[in-house]
């Protein structure tokens, strides 16, 4: 918080006895460090207090203070500590880079780039870098990657539609003497990319999370020349998958998911071109064609939700305890689809559901919901002429 001159005068006019009492009752090391910076009189009272508490000069950095600085997780507190003196800065400043760094704007990206350019050795401290949705020039993204992508990196996340970015990742890793054996997640493009596929394979032994799209740049359906889904089995640590795809039939999904045998969470953003299969057809097909995975605990479904999809997924992942559905495509209410959809959802312990129905089907849907005793909320979207039905038993 910035203070103007009048505010500073008020603070410096506090009686010394009262100020001493305030300081003596302050147990927070970061707060004491900040008090040193208010003015000369505060600094004169606070520094001796710090010295007496830690039995050494601040610039000597006793082991106790070093440990306090090292185990401080708050970036804001580290920023205060580094301002006390040069010795504290030498410890605190590099540690500011070890937490999650979220790049929210081009300005923030440039600021971080400038800092790392001046102190390139700090790049090795960065473990988690996230690029937010705001537009950031590709040259800056690549510049940050060049300065921060080291074998200590654990996660780089966000949406990056730049093949050169992924080529640079591969190049840095290939030239490194040390293995990138800590990398759990990398950014993803919004569309299908062969270069991204190659990058995934380059880090397949460590990646725990993958976001994968089977859509092209024009957001249209297409058939990729490389069926990457056959490679999922080689990702031995993959526990979280987000898949976006347009498929001919619900049953085609098994061919993509069959290799993901260690998943704990699946997010599915899919559209299917076939009709909704009757329940007896799902029950006849699943036992001999579906590989059951008992490690999945959470399912997230977006874009489109339908009863045969839920029945298939809950057969494949029988230990699912949480399901989160937010489907923008209106639910088909014909052929008992709504009834089957809700029956499938109710078998999951925790559920949070948003499904859209066309206004013409609303009365029929409400009759069923009320008759079944389901508690729900309605939100109308006049532009799309749909009504969103919300059902949840999550707190």
From TrEMBL:
InterPro entries xrefs: F-box-like_dom_sf
The protein's name in its UniProt record: F-box domain-containing protein
Source organism per UniProt: Mucor ambiguus
């Amino acid at each position: 918080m910035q203070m103007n001159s009048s505010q500073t005068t008020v603070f410096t006019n506090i009686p010394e006895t009262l100020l001493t009492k305030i300081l003596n009752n302050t147990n927070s090391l970061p707060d004491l460090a900040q008090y040193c910076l208010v003015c000369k009189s505060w600094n004169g009272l606070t520094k001796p207090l710090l010295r007496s508490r830690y039995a050494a000069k601040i610039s000597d950095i006793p082991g106790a203070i070093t440990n306090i600085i090292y185990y401080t997780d708050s970036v804001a507190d580290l920023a205060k500590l580094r301002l006390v003196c040069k010795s504290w800065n030498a410890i605190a400043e590099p540690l500011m880079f070890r937490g999650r760094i979220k790049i929210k704007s081009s300005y923030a990206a440039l600021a971080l780039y400038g800092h790392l350019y001046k102190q390139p050795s700090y790049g090795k401290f960065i473990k988690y870098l996230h690029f937010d949705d705001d537009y950031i020039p590709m040259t800056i993204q690549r510049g940050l990657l060049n300065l921060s992508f080291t074998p200590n990196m654990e996660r780089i996340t966000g949406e990056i539609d730049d093949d050169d970015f992924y080529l640079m990742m591969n190049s840095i890793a290939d030239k490194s003497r040390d293995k990138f054996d800590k990398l759990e997640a990398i950014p993803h493009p919004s569309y299908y990319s062969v270069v991204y596929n190659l990058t995934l394979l380059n880090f397949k032994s460590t990646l725990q999370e993958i976001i994968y799209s089977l859509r092209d740049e024009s957001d249209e359906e297409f058939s990729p020349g490389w069926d990457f889904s056959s490679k999922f089995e080689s990702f031995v640590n993959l526990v979280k998958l987000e898949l976006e795809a347009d498929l001919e039939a619900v049953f085609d999904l098994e061919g993509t998911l069959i290799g993901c045998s260690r998943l704990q969470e699946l997010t599915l953003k899919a559209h299917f071109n076939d009709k909704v299969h009757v329940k007896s057809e799902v029950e006849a097909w699943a036992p001999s064609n579906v590989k059951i995975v008992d490690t999945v605990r959470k399912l997230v479904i977006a874009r489109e939700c339908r009863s045969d999809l839920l029945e298939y997924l809950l057969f494949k992942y029988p230990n699912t305890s949480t399901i989160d559905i937010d489907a923008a495509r209106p639910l088909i209410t014909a052929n008992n689809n709504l009834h089957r959809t809700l029956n499938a959802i109710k078998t999951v312990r925790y559920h949070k559901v948003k499904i859209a129905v066309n206004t013409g089907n609303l009365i029929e849907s409400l009759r069923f919901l009320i008759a079944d005793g389901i508690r729900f909320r309605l939100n109308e979207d006049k532009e799309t002429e749909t009504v969103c039905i919300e059902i949840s038993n999550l707190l």
